[in-house]
Design brief:
Two copies of one chain form a homodimer. Chain A is about 55% helix and about 10% strand. Chain A is an alpha+beta fold. Chain A has two domains: about 80 residues, Glutaredoxin (3-Layer(aba) Sandwich), CATH 3.40.30; about 140 residues, Glutathione S-transferase Yfyf (Class Pi), Chain A, domain 2 (Up-down Bundle). The first copy, chain A, has a four-stranded mixed β-sheet, with helices on one face. In chain A, a hairpin with a 2-residue loop joins strand 3 and strand 4. Chain A is globular. At the A-B interface, helix 3 and helix 8 of A face helix 3 and helix 8 of B. Chains A, B: Keywords: Transferase. Chains A, B: InterPro entries: Glutathione-S-Trfase_C_sf, Glutathione_S-Trfase_N, GST_UstS-like_C, Thioredoxin-like_sf. Chains A, B: GO terms for molecular function: glutathione transferase activity; maleylacetoacetate isomerase activity. Chains A, B: This is Glutathione S-transferase.
Chain lengths: ~230, ~230
Amino acid sequence: MTILLYDLVGRDGARPFSPHCWKATMAIAHKGLDISTVPTRFLEVPTVEGGVSKLVPVIRDGEKVVADSFAIALYLDEAYPERPTLFCGDGGKAMARFIERWSQLTIHPYVTTAAIMDLHAMQDEANAAYFRQNREQRFGQRLEEVVAARDAGLGAFRTSLEPLRSMLAYQPFIGGQSPLFADYIVFGALQWARIASPYRLLDDSDVVAQWFERCLDLHDGLGRTVAAAS
Amino acid sequence: MTILLYDLVGRDGARPFSPHCWKATMAIAHKGLDISTVPTRFLEVPTVEGGVSKLVPVIRDGEKVVADSFAIALYLDEAYPERPTLFCGDGGKAMARFIERWSQLTIHPYVTTAAIMDLHAMQDEANAAYFRQNREQRFGQRLEEVVAARDAGLGAFRTSLEPLRSMLAYQPFIGGQSPLFADYIVFGALQWARIASPYRLLDDSDVVAQWFERCLDLHDGLGRTVAAAS
């Protein structure tokens, strides 16, 4: 089976960067399904599958269209129950939601701060203008003012990862002995940073960085098929 | 089956207050097992079951002795697989560990700050002296200095619960439609505060407070059998 994924890109169609699309990419690979991507710019998102969602990822699997990375993971697990599970039980489904909320509220704001000028620089002219206008309205600040906070915030960001860091003393993945969708949720956030920006979020000696490297190795090194920003 | 629980108390043997013991209490009730408690003061912990652990909870189930609330929950699920599950799958087991680390590193430090003088006041003379000496060594501060930070920290504490608050827009419990051990982990921390201190951690309008009330209702209102501090 081949899943069609509308995947957010900038000027370079071979550098998908969206954290949420990466969650979907990893989930599709985890299920052992083939993936065919439609590189999609910000301004094209409203036209995806007739405007089914304001955001990507969106997937098409035959006749079925699903938007939202979490909904995609739930769909894939239900549609392909004979393939490796993304949640490993209803408890895992429920708690993955907590981890998604934690990642979104803990990691995403700082990655946005740290990478916002790089994300802007990845877009073509029209999309860069959209991105600047949209994000400056959201933050009530110029992009240049947003990014100015990143050095001062780095220490607090690293501290905010302490629950994950501490958990890694017990098990190699959020999913336990092997990765589940919860791992891809947090992976997506750090992969977004890795692809967009050379800014160094983590020390190599950090067990969180080591876990991220393990995630980059998964599914034949799928995460490494896009080089880190330099 | 009756499980013997060594449960931490202060001067009043009927007011168990330990967050970790409450996790075990709720887990035993969730499994539909009877519970028999041994009220245990701080200074008695080293003598529990021949000194099996530096901390309570410790349970005895027939010949089997288990220490540590998470290990107790895992044990109960393995020993009584025909009774309601505490994890609902291996994914739930793995991710409950993340939630435990999040609760321990996010909620526990602030509850300690907020309730430390009240916790001290709950102990008899010998245990109060132990508690003061032990905690002042840990913090490098007088207890009176620790608690002085609570008003200034309250806003940040409430903000730190945002992942839980946000998750509650999706589902009524951390475990999904019904509670699992992950709920009892966070419940234990807030129940510790509720029993030790009248200090108001949450607004009634907060969905986290509403979730906590739902947890107090569980298992025939088990959590309410000990009145809130006043």
